[in-house]
Recover the amino acids of this structure.
């Protein structure tokens, strides 16, 4: 966490993004809107380094409201997020999701509140923005790409879309800075890739070079 | 038969007289507690300064007992004041088939009505006499309420039915700046509550009680006790009438006379309990008293005056109940874990609403906000006429042990607030809508995680390892991805509850078009022992739209491709 002119920020963990954001990181205590064209193109990975760093600095919940799937606990551990601080909330309706989000944000006990929300009008976004400021939590609203046309009070709005080489992040509304386009934001060396042993498609019966991870192969 | 008394044989020891072996046998001082092993002096151990043998009163720290006696409690419990001049009033009760006067107010007393008179005699004296029947239950409730109130003067309050309270105030003297002021505060406080009270102070509870049946007096030390107690009429002891009659028959009417009787004979003829009572009153035997600890539960009801469905009115009623509860909990230093509201309907039945908390506490503000959330969603089948609030069994309140707030407004705030968020979310969304996660040491992806109660992990500090909340700062700063973890391969951030079967086109699995393999395979074979045997080759694959998926090929028949997770 850093204090900057733009308020408190958290380094994103991605050099290219830090360079385009005022203060050099995600604006905390405010609402960030992440629009994405598809699920799985890196919309969560984008925030994971900052979330796990925040968790190490501050106590509090990381709340997931109405996630589309179950966050996979071993993966969270890999990213350095303390799993016992994750709170999963499954509201029955959109209205309740927004209520829960506002409640969590303003409680002051959450490091971050991640919510998957389809419909959110400008008034709601303003309320969430205020609640985030009140509770000093970071609100992230994940929304479909079509929401780009809607007005919103979020401090930061971005759109993820598959680019020619990795995923591009279109920072189309940045409070305190110009909009920017970051292509292939994830330029780290990508974890520890396993070389593709044999191009599948032709006969996948036995792959001699398979890396065994399991009871018989030991914990290698 | 009355045997002539000899000095050496009396309850009161003669100076320098050696202890009588005979009396040792007759000493019926089987006092509970191992502390009372040393032999008691034969006779009355007073004054202690002159008594060569060890006396109980000398081995303990001095006590100061304050007895509050409410002579008019029978009238006051019925809502009448003993001093009221609204005509003669008396409380009557049935005794041995006769209706007799139990208590008369001042006007009635002036007309010559005395306790113990039969009703007909009383009516003959004052034909305008208004009679009320005695309500022992109400007296008991009133006495308990006053014991509650008296808790402000001492932590040790012991109600002595039917009309007295005993307070051990030695420890409170400094706080109240002396006995004089304390007595004044007690009397004044009771007067304001509409009770006439007699206050007596003595070093032993029984002495204070007996003295209070005579008149207000104050005895400062054990040495003084004899001077005050000896002249008292034996009736102050409240011993059974038969015992008093028998004692009167041998010419014994005061406590002093009684103490001159031989111990052994006295115990045999009038009961060992009488001898023990005398010893307790004079501080020669310990006299442990039960503490009044307040009722084990809270239950209070308010009437709303008229039937209503108005949420604001109901909330106001509940709020009042909560304020009462807060007061109650503070006074008794208790904490509640469950609150049960009941909304009564005029045509019978009640709608319940229960609030449960992760921790027993007494934070009424928090309860109020939770109740607000629940009230909004409460379905009432009919208008409400009354609301009741009851608690489960109350727990003792833990002392406030939070660290000193070195950084103002920071310390303790989080630890306390964390479960609260869960509680308020659950209040509205339901118990199961708020879950926590857990990672398990397991190779099979499906079994490597679990949903848990988010509060369980927090409650576990001190139990199995440090709580994650305390571990926060101990996490290595470099706990980035993969490092220090035995899983070398990146796992997807999303997992599907059930693997989704993928279509296969020309030998390639498809998901929005054919998938591109990125890396793999990673073979996972495990679980042959628990019936969920798994043999799979996992790949990371990419869709045409750029989404990264975690898919596997089942190596066991029927083989096929499945989607397990999404990298997000």
């Amino acid at each position: 966490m850093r204090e900057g002119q733009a308020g408190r920020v958290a380094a994103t963990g991605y050099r290219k993004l830090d360079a385009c954001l005022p203060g050099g990181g995600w604006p905390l205590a405010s609402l960030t809107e992440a629009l994405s064209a598809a699920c799985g193109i890196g919309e969560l990975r984008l925030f994971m380094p900052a979330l796990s760093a925040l968790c190490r600095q501050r106590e509090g919940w990381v709340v997931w409201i109405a996630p589309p799937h179950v966050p996979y606990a071993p993966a969270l551990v890999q990213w350095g997020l303390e799993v016992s601080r994750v709170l999963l909330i499954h509201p029955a309706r959109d209205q309740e999701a927004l209520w829960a989000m506002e409640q969590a944000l303003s409680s002051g006990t959450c490091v971050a509140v991640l919510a998957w929300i389809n419909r959110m009008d400008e008034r709601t976004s303003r309320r969430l923005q205020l609640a985030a400021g009140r509770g000093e939590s970071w609100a992230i609203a994940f929304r479909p790409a079509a929401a780009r046309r809607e007005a919103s009070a979020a401090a930061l709005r971005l759109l993820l879309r598959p680019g020619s080489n990795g995923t591009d992040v279109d920072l189309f509304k940045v409070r305190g800075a110009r909009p920017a386009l970051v292509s292939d934001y994830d330029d780290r060396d990508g974890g520890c890739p396993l070389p593709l042993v044999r191009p599948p498609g032709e006969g996948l019966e036995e792959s001699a070079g398979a890396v065994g991870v399991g009871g018989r192969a030991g914990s290698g | 038969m009355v045997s002539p008394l000899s000095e050496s044989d009396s309850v009161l020891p003669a100076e320098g007289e050696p202890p009588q072996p005979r009396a040792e046998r007759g000493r019926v001082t089987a006092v509970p507690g191992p502390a009372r092993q040393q032999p008691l002096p034969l006779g009355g151990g007073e004054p202690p300064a002159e008594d060569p043998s060890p006396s109980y009163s000398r081995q303990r720290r001095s006590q100061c007992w304050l007895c509050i006696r409410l002579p008019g409690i029978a009238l006051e419990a019925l809502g009448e004041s003993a001093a009221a001049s609204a005509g003669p009033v008396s409380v009557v009760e049935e005794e041995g088939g006769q209706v007799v006067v139990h208590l008369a107010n001042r006007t009635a007393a002036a007309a010559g009505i005395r306790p113990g008179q039969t009703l007909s005699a009383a009516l003959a004296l004052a034909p305008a006499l208004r009679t009320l029947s005695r309500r022992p239950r109400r007296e008991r409730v009133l006495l308990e309420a006053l014991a509650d109130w008296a808790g402000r003067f001492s932590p040790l309050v012991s109600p002595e039915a039917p009309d007295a309270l005993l307070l051990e105030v030695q420890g409170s003297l400094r706080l109240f700046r002396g006995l004089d002021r304390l007595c004044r505060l007690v009397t004044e406080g009771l007067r304001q509550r509409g009770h006439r009270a007699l206050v007596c102070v003595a070093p032993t509870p029984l002495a204070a009680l007996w003295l209070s049946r005579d008149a207000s007096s104050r005895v400062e030390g054990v040495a003084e006790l004899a001077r005050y107690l000896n002249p008292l009429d034996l009736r102050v002891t409240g011993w059974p009438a038969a015992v008093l009659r028998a004692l009167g028959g041998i010419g014994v009417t005061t406590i002093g006379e009684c103490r001159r009787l031989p111990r052994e004979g006295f115990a045999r003829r009038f009961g060992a309990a009488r001898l023990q009572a005398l010893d307790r009153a004079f501080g020669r035997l310990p006299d442990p008293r039960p503490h009044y600890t307040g009722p084990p539960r809270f239950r209070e009801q308010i009437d709303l005056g008229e039937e209503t469905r108005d949420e604001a009115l109901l909330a106001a009623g509940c709020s009042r109940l909560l304020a009462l509860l807060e007061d109650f909990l503070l006074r008794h230093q208790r904490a509640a874990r469950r609150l049960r509201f009941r909304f009564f309907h005029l045509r019978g039945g009640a709608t319940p609403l229960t609030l449960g908390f992760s921790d027993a506490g007494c934070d009424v503000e928090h309860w109020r906000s939770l109740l607000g959330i629940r009230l909004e969603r409460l379905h009432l089948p009919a208008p409400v006429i009354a609301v009741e609030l009851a608690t489960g069994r109350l727990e003792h309140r833990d002392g406030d042990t939070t660290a000193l707030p070195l950084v103002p407004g920071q310390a303790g705030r989080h630890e306390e607030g964390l479960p609260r968020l869960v509680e308020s979310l659950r209040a509205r969304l339901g118990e199961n809508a708020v879950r926590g996660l857990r990672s398990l040491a397991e190779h099979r992806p499906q079994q490597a995680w679990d949903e848990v109660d988010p509060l369980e992990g927090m409650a576990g500090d001190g139990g199995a390892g440090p709580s994650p909340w305390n571990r926060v700062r101990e996490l290595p700063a470099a706990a980035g991805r993969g490092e220090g973890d035995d899983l070398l391969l990146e796992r997807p951030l999303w997992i599907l509850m059930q693997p989704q079967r993928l279509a296969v086109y020309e030998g390639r699995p498809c998901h929005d078009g054919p998938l591109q393999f990125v890396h793999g395979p990673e073979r996972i074979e495990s679980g042959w022992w628990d019936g969920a045997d798994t043999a799979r080759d996992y790949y990371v694959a990419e869709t045409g739209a750029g989404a990264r998926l975690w898919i596997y090929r089942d190596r066991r028949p029927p083989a096929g491709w499945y989607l397990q997770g999404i990298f997000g």
